[in-house]
Amino acid sequence: xxxxxxxxxxxxxxxxxxxxxxxxxxxxxxxxxxxxxxxxxxxxxxxxxxxxxxxxxxxxxxxxxxxxxxxxxxxxxxxxxxxxxxxxxxxxxxxxxxxxxxxxxxxxxxxxxxxxxxxxxxxxxxxxxxxxxxxxxxxxxxxxxxxxxxxxxxxxxxxxxxxxxxxxxxxxxxxxxxxxxxxxxxxxxxxxxxxxxxxxxxxxxxxxxxxxxxxxxxxxxxxxxxxxxxxxxxxxxxxxxxxxxxxxxxxxxxxxxxxxxxxxxxxxxxxxxxxxxxxxxxxxxxxxxxxxxxxxxxxxxxxxxxxxxxxxxxxxxxxxxxxxxxxxxxxxxxxxxxxxxxxxxxxxxxxxxxxxxxxxxxxxx
Amino acid sequence: xxxxxxxxxxxxxxxxxxxxxxxxxxxxxxxxxxxxxxxxxxxxxxxxxxxxxxxxxxxxxxxxxxxxxxxxxxxxxxxxxxxxxxxxxxxxxxxxxxxxxxxxxxxxxxxxxxxxxxxxxxxxxxxxxxxxxxxxxxxxxxxxxxxxxxxxxxxxxxxxxxxxxxxxxxxxxxxxxxxxxxxxxxxxxxxxxxxxxxxxxxxxxxxxxxxxxxxxxxxxxxxxxxxxxxxxxxxxxxxxxxxxxxxxxxxxxxxxxxxxxxxxxxxxxxxxxxxxxxxxxxxxxxxxxxxxxxxxxxxxxxxxxxxxxxxxxxxxxxxxxxxxxxxxxxxxxxxxxxxxxxxxxxxxxxxxxxxxxxxxxxxxxxxxxxxxxxxxxxxxxxxxxxxxxxxxxxxxxxxxxxxxxxxxxxxxxxxxxxxxxxxxxxxxxxxxxxxxxxxxxxxxxxxxxxxxxxxxxxxxxxxxxxxxxxxxxxxxxxxxxxxxxxxxxxxxxxxxxxxxxxxxxxxxxxxxxxxxxxxxxxxxxxxxxxxxxxxxxxxxxxxxxxxxxxxxxxxxxxxxxxxxxxxxxxxxxxxxxxxxxxxxxxxxxxxxxxxxxxxxxxxxxxxxxxxxxxxxxxxxxxxxxxxxxxxxxxxxxxxxxxxxxxxxxxxxxxxxxxxxxxxxxx
Lengths: 365, 666
Known about the structure:
Distance between the termini of chain B: 80 Å
Helix content of chain A: 55-70%
Strand order of the largest sheet of chain B: 3-2-1-4-5-6-7
CATH architecture of the largest domain in chain B: 3-Layer(aba) Sandwich
CATH class of the largest domain in chain B: Alpha Beta
CATH topology of the largest domain in chain B: Rossmann fold
Number of helices of chain A: 16
Oligomer: heterodimer
Strand content of chain B: 5-15%
Helix content of chain B: 40-55%
Number of strands of chain B: 15
Distance between the termini of chain A: 38 Å
Number of helices of chain B: 27
Structural class of chain B: alpha/beta
Structural class of chain A: mainly alpha
């Protein structure tokens, strides 16, 4: 918003140069979201608690979650308010990439909030939206996003970039196919929303890897949105996509602001609102810069969490046995007696290494 | 001028239980509003095709199907196509007839008409004005009826507790409408018509229009014994399937059993029918009714003022039949026999015990005063005239009558042991054990044991596993041989063998001495099971075994060999439990400590904790001196990566809340 105001007042070339550059706006967006979190965090958490948005024991809880009952839930609203607030202030609101990101943020935050609300009202973690409803919502958004990316009339991406696959360590396109790309986009959206959702189970376990992923996506958005950088590093140039970096900066700031309160022992949980919102926007950003594989590498923790759940619940249950001690993976370690803080720290280490690996791929091509 | 007809569409069926209330309401409607013209919409080859034309109501057919059980795309697609065809046809009929209202009694048969009426109304923004009323005959709404209730303007319910599950202001209590023709028959005339002597004792058994396997079989199997009394007559509406594809053919089944029974002359006194239309005649002629506990049956029978022997279907929809049956029993109008399975002897199809059946019937036969008492009680259970209430409400809905007064229905008392599924059953039993729930009464224990038997008879090993766990918590000693069989069988599903041992840990303590050998072998094989959870569950049984039976040198040696092997298992729980079990039974500490010493630096601290506990056990058992123990413990790594936290604020909160709740009580 502020960017647009300056642009209209001083014209594209003039005014404060500091608001013109992507890099400076990304930093400002980060700082804004972070401090906004510190300011509104405490009163917001208190309000959530006062209005009964508190967590409860999962009815089939295998782990000792009693200790956490009563913690304010739906803290996703904090990330949403500060992240999206800051993005609205510092992003170029005329940019179609930002429209798509804002749409995904509102879409997933809204349905996540409904899910949380139903759970809290029903006083049971199984009372939320049905699995069918969740998948429908995710697939629907995936389809809309695929249309947005692949329909030449409305797509902000160059047509040859939109429908082709890029892989790390390989220059250029591997192959192009509109149908496959559409399926791929839907898959990425469903995967990212669910994976982040499954990883949400311990204090700080979701937010830190999410922040790392957004940092990686922001760096990539900055590169592919900059003609010189993109050519220098042999990426396909996507005009206008640099704005995504500002958005990522805002979410990173909001995420770290959230961690301020969510760090062990947590004073607030993000709930499905937070995890769906983070997962949804993460996937959308990755799709918009066509770097889904980088996203998967950087978010390896999420892959592990969703795979372990799948193995345990789908394959294991068909064999009438447990394959891991418990699922998702963080409960597997918890079952062995490892302290929560330790598990979370180790997961952070792994996700930091994977994020670094994703960034290293920029140079190795 | 020609008198203007007011048109109605009635629908519902699939089984007789859905058609007869519709017909009862139709008759009442014609009586109140002579200009009413009723058309019935049903499905071919179902009960309505048989019953509706006999009532003199024109019948039209649409296609419909029940919700498919599985989730296979093929069956779902078939279902969707059938429903689409049914909906289109129903919509055409509705447009042609333009009825004032649609009255549906539920079941899949009514779905196309109800939804077509609803869609037409929505699509024309209210230009198509047909009202929709549904009658729900059971306590619980079926899946289709739940959806249909949303489309309906009003829902009449047979049991007042159903109203709670409906949207606000939609439900009203009516009761279950019974055909008025039934009430008219007279006992003496009826007996003359059936050729039964005036002073005979007549048992009339029927299990709905399609027959009930349990009732038919228990009756046919008891026939010889019951008919020994020359004054006893049995009438059996055995039922026959409507379509060509069926699961059970009642009439053929009973004929077959009777053939083998060799009844001789007494066979004349066993009146076997496949399908009974003029129920009133048979009701009037009978002294005792043997029935299922469907809402329709019990209401109909109680209205006749007849004593009944109820055999409820178990293990379906929330146990509502058992609930119904117990309700009538408490009111003093019926005796109840529960059907069960016998998993111990491999009988997985539910049956009623014929010895118990004979005993109950003979008891009632010889006690005329008791029968009279039951009759009197039956008459008073269901007040009001349901058909009349429904018609009044229907007319009010169509703006053709006054607003009828609301009627409060009979309240059922819910048994806490009913409606539990395999998971909630175990939780409930644990609560009774811990004191959070009141202790179980004898009849409740009987119901729960029946339930557990049913779960054991399931084909799903996960359900069987849960049955094992519940048996363990309840202390259901009779099934121990079955559980030992599951535990010892290496081909059992992993969850099943695991939970079998979990149950045995508790059942061992009440086990007969004769089972010692079986149990020992089961535990031995469990220690080597390929599934890790089974291995440690088996290990947990060892101390119970040793405590209950004592342990011989031979047994000790065999156990310890496998336990030492399990101490290098890849699963930490197996290692930990092996350590504890070995500490419980070992006498040779030298050998034991040698095996323990390999675990002093185990990666998982829970194993090392088990070691410390093991030392505690060894010291308490007096097989290890404290000095050696101390020097051994000194070698164990006691750094760990786990700890428990406490929120001091919550601790204080709990203590002050406890104080408050104490004062409340006093």
